[in-house]
C-alpha cells in the first residue's frame, strides 16, 4: 500500500530523511516514531505528495508519487484521509458542515451526504454534536470531528500526524480506541507519534526515526 525505497529528502543543507526504506501493507497499522525533527511529518507529506523526494521512490497504492503531474495530485489525494494534531476544523461551520466539505471536494451527490455524515459520526461517537460549532466542542470532540471528516470519503489509507499531541492521556486513549476500531474494520493506518505510552499500549509495527534515518 505504501512503499519507501531509499528515500532522501533535503531542505537546503538539512537532510530530513536519508535513504529511508519501509513498507506498509494493506490493512497494517504502523507507528512512525522518533523525537521532534526526526522526519516523521516529512514522511507523511511525501505520502500525500505535498513534498517530492530528492532521491529514492515513494509508492502509494501502486502509484509512484514522484511521477504524478500537479493536475493529478487532487484525485490521488482522495484515496488518503488525514488527521492533524491541531484539528484543522473550520470555526465558522458546524460539525456536520465541516464533514460535508470533504464530500463536496470529492464531488459526491448531495443526496448521499446525510447518510455518510451520520454514519461516520456514529463511528466516532459524535451523533449528538452534529449541529454544534467548534467553539462548543472539547479538544477530544474536535479531534473526533477531524477523524470523521477524514473517514467520510472512505479513504484507502488514513494518515494521522500526532493526533493525540494536544490531548490529555484519558482523551488521547479514547481517540486511540477509535483508531483501533477503524483498523479492525480493515483500514490501513500510518500514524506519526512520539507518545511512548501510546506506543507501548497499542503494540503496532514501528518505524523509528532518529536524525532522518531508521534506527
Describe the protein in words.
- The protein contains 7 helices and 10 strands.
- It is α/β, with parallel strands linked by helices.
- The strands form 2 sheets. The protein has a 6-stranded mixed beta sheet with strand order 6-7-8-3-9-10. A 4-stranded antiparallel beta sheet has the order 2-1-4-5, covered by helices on one side.
- The chain is globular.
- The mean pLDDT is 94.
Number of strands: 10
Strand content: 25-35%
Mean pLDDT: 94
Spans of at least 5 consecutive residues whose pLDDT stays below 50 are none
Main sheet makeup: 6 strands, mixed
Q: Separation of termini? A: 22 Å
**What is the radius of gyration?**
17 Å
- Element-by-element helix/strand order: EEEHEEHEHHHEHEHEE
Structural class: alpha/beta
What is the tally of helical segments?
Answer: 7
Largest beta sheet: strand ordering: 6-7-8-3-9-10
The portion of residues assigned to helices is 25-40%
Principal-axes geometry comes out as globular
SSE order and pairing:
Blueprint: E1 2-11, E2 14-24, E3 29-33, H1 40-48, E4 55-60, E5 63-64, H2 73-77, E6 80-84, H3 95-106, H4 113-124, H5 139-151, E7 157-161, H6 169-184, E8 188-192, H7 196-201, E9 205-210, E10 213-214
Provide tags for this entry.
215 residues; six-stranded mixed beta sheet; four-stranded antiparallel beta sheet
What's the quick description here?
With 215 residues, the chain is an alpha/beta fold. It has helices at 40-48, 73-77, 95-106, 113-124, 139-151, 169-184, 196-201, and strands spanning 2-11, 14-24, 29-33, 55-60, 63-64, 80-84, 157-161, 188-192, 205-210, 213-214. It is globular.
Amino acid at each position: 500500500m505504501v512503499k519507501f525505497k531509499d528515500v532522501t529528502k533535503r531542505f537546503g543543507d538539512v537532510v530530513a530523511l536519508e535513504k529511508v526504506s519501509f513498507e506498509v501493507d494493506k490493512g497494517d497499522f504502523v507507528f512512525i516514531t522518533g523525537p521532534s525533527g526526526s522526519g516523521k511529518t516529512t514522511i507523511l507529506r511525501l505520502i500525500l505528495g505535498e513534498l517530492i523526494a530528492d532521491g529514492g521512490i515513494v509508492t502509494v497504492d501502486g502509484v509512484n508519487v514522484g511521477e504524478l503531474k500537479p493536475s493529478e495530485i487532487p484525485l490521488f489525494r482522495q484515496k488518503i484521509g488525514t488527521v492533524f494534531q491541531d484539528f484543522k476544523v473550520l470555526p465558522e461551520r458546524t460539525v456536520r458542515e465541516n464533514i460535508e466539505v470533504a464530500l463536496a471536494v470529492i464531488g459526491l451527490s448531495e443526496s448521499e451526504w446525510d447518510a455518510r455524515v451520520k454514519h461516520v459520526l456514529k463511528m466516532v461517537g459524535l451523533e449528538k454534536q452534529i449541529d454544534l460549532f467548534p467553539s462548543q466542542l472539547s479538544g477530544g470532540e474536535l479531534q473526533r470531528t477531524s477523524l470523521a471528516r477524514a473517514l467520510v470519503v472512505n479513504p484507502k489509507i488514513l494518515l494521522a500526524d500526532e493526533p493525540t499531541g494536544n490531548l490529555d492521556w484519558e482523551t488521547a486513549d479514547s481517540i486511540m480506541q477509535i483508531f483501533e476500531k477503524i483498523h479492525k474494520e480493515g483500514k490501513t493506518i500510518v500514524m506519526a507519534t512520539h507518545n511512548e505510552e501510546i506506543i507501548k499500549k497499542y503494540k503496532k509495527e514501528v518505524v523509528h526515526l532518529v536524525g532522518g534515518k531508521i534506527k
